[in-house]
Design a protein that fits this description.
The protein is mostly beta strands and 124 residues long. Helices cover 0% and strands 48% of the residues. The mean pLDDT is 96.
């Protein structure tokens, strides 16, 4: 129930691009708001991007706005995060999350299900 599996992480150089994907097993995926969060070593988990159920509305943290793009394919039950112009400070474990009820949110406490995370490392 509500299983999310991230993929696509890896080690890249500053300035490179990388795409993350999150596969959802929940058949009601198309009804859920979704989000990406990240946690760097020694830091709290933080909001990265969120998208509403239809994909029509997206939200970004100031630190990634203009560099990252969140999207979803409800027919395939997938959520993507395209990251460009990566910086060393983007290094973190990236998590996708789903919110069963409610709009897309920047508050991680609003989300009900989480993936296991995928590591992104950006070298300078």
């Amino acid at each position: 129930q509500g299983r999310l599996v991230e993929s696509g992480g890896g080690l890249v150089q500053a300035g490179d691009s990388l795409s993350l994907s999150c596969a959802a097993s929940e058949r009601k995926f198309s009804r859920y708001a979704m989000g990406w969060f990240r946690q760097a070593p020694g830091k709290e988990r933080e909001f990265v991007a969120a998208i509403n159920w239809s994909g029509a509305s997206t939200y970004y943290a100031d630190s990634v706005n203009g560099r990252f793009a969140i999207s979803r394919d409800n027919a395939k039950n997938t959520l993507d995060l395209k990251m460009s112009s990566l910086k060393p400070e983007d290094t973190a474990v990236y998590y996708c999350a789903s919110r069963v009820w409610g709009e897309a949110s920047q508050d991680q406490n609003d989300y009900d299900y989480w993936g296991q995370g995928t590591q992104v490392a950006v070298s300078s």
